[in-house]
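lol ok so funny story. i was supposed to be doing the assay writeup but got distracted and ended up predicting the structure for this chain instead. priorities right. anyway since i did it might as well share w the group, maybe its usefull for someone
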Amino acid sequence: MNQQNSMEQKRGNLVLFQLGFRPFFLAAGIVSFLFMSIWAALYSFGWAYTFPRMSSIHWHAHEMLFGYGMAVIAGFLLTAVGNWTGQPALKGTGLMLPFSLWVAARMASILDLPFTPWVMLICDMGFWFLVSLAVMKPILRVKQWRQTGIMAKLILLGGANLAFYAGIMGWFADGIRWGLYGGLYLIIGLVLTMGRRVIPFFTEHGVGYPVQLKNWLWLDLSAIVVFLLFFVWELLYPGSKVSAHFALVLFVLHILRVSGWLTNGIWKRPLLWSLFAAYFFMISGFLIHAGSRYFGWNPFLAVHAFAMGGIGVITLSMMARVSLGHTGRSIHEPPPKLTVALTMIVIGVFFRVFFPLAWPQDYRLWIGIAQGLWIGAFGVYLILYFPILTRPRIDGLPG
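and the output, tada:
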């Protein structure tokens, strides 16, 4: 009996590390809340603080992409790869190591000490290597070659982060730009790839009535090729009108794609309309990017249409959905107050991207409001999902 109690206690202590989504989705929410609060204090309230070998803007961009963003990606892929391949997923003590490295890198990022950049570099790259290994091993073992695109983006994300560190270390003059913009566009590419798979699937199975959505192979292939051209050209020749042409084509292609997915039932489901909102914000980023070259619009509006509108909204929605499904809860009955969080972040995108486009004279005001709404959205997420992520599944199954 004592041995059984000991085993149950040990299992309870390790609930957080039963699957990858648990620790990484929880930590992503915490870091998003705390680091955006720090950024708001710096930008909107004039708090003076220095970061290791980087400006506060570069710290903010790096931690949102390679801190928050990579945590969500790791949590999603480490959970999904088991379902894709039928192979055992990383869990327990094996999951603790990459998670601990990720946490160490985030903590180091706010300590302005001589050795801090080295700690960040070693921990971030170690985290990326272990996560990549855990994702790619089962895929290669079962020869699931259709996941090649995801594996390639994961590898390139490590290269982008390494370029950033090479920049702040002084090894590569253009490393910070390559790292941040390369990371941004790679995550956008990954989100578009996964969105193409999951948004129509979730819609068909979530609206509550029979519907067959439209997808076109020529459009899928065109979007991949043009995005690759946009990505390469923008990194090699920033500010070029050629990349603006590619961005405009991408906007048109993705408008066509999403037009084949629309159905009235999505507006009754917060975990559906939020995915569509994120997709619209993301493709509006291509339009605003083109406008920044054609009409002189502020290029950072396009960056935040991608980052806050695309990545921010879709990751919050996906974390909420995946956490419900993998803890034995109904994805059709999310916590009622989740709609508050999703609504706050969506409204925040309008203040961060579209209000400054229309009323640029109040730019700092709009950013401050958007920061507050982001912080509020993730505060609500943490209150709702902390117990979900830290307690055993409600159906008694492992995971």
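DSSP finds 13 helices and no strands in the chain. The mean pLDDT is 94.
back to the writeup now i swear
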